[in-house]
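Form 7-S
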Amino acid sequence: EFATLADGAVLNGVLMLAAILALLWAALRTWRLILAVMLSLTAGLIVTAAFGLWLFGAFNLISVAFAVLFVGLGVDFSIQFCVAYRAERHLSDDLRGALVNAGRQMGAPLALAAISTAVGFYAFLPTEYRGVSELGVIAGSGMIVAFIATVTLLPALVVLLRPGGEPATVGYAALAPLDRFLLKHRRRIMVLAVGVAAGSVALLPWLQFDFNPLNLRSPKVESAATLLELMRDPDTTPNTVQVLVPSIDEATALAQRLVRNSRSSLTRRSCSLLPSTRVGRAPRRVTKSRREPCRVQSIRSKRRPAANRKLRSVSPLRVSRPRSGYSPTARRRSANACGSC
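Output:
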């Protein structure tokens, strides 16, 4: 199953790198700043991966997704800091002074963003799904690492790479009306955001969650494909429930209740597997005992098996008389085997 992670990994990696570089170029407009951001992201990703391996020993199919989350959110921290640096550098050609002013301007907002994002990831901790819980710990800690790298390593790399000055105003003139609109109507926008959040909370009772981790597996893997094929047949599906009740009457009542349940396709009792009559023998009266346990099996499947019709058409096997050439020991073994059947 870990081999499925390599499926399309090269293509996805190239597309992700191209998208990040395009976004960085649109925001920073200089390859030296872009190189500083990429080096800072790489260092932060290595530190986060090392922390995850130290804490859990290995990544699983879900927790390995921390890398995508770190790159996607960490690059946003770097862009915010570098854009603020470019704005300060436009006002003053002093590189170090522009970095100091950008740090003072963006330190608190980036810290708030990192903490709030980390808290969101740490909310995965209480779940019983190990992969999701580990993902929350690693990704949440990665946000702290990304913030520290943005305010420490990134400025140091900018000083070493020494990008040029900023003669033009930072930003896009075509988007200036949008900025003015947001500033003018900021209170209404905040009220609207709070209303949307409240409405989302009110809709939580209708939220449906898929608790089946099997749906996270690739159906192309042989193990998952085999299991799905077995689950489609009620005779081989592992989605069964076995109940032991003290009497046949209670087993019958329980079987009827399970049949009425929409999640159960059929029920089988161990008592129902016995033939009603035996060929070649007189019918024997069976007394019901309250102390005799009877097992009820409920099979969860959407398709009813044809095995019931087959069982009704099979006649009880007749015990054949052993031939005279058999020894007494062989006769006893044959009789014991037939009795077991």
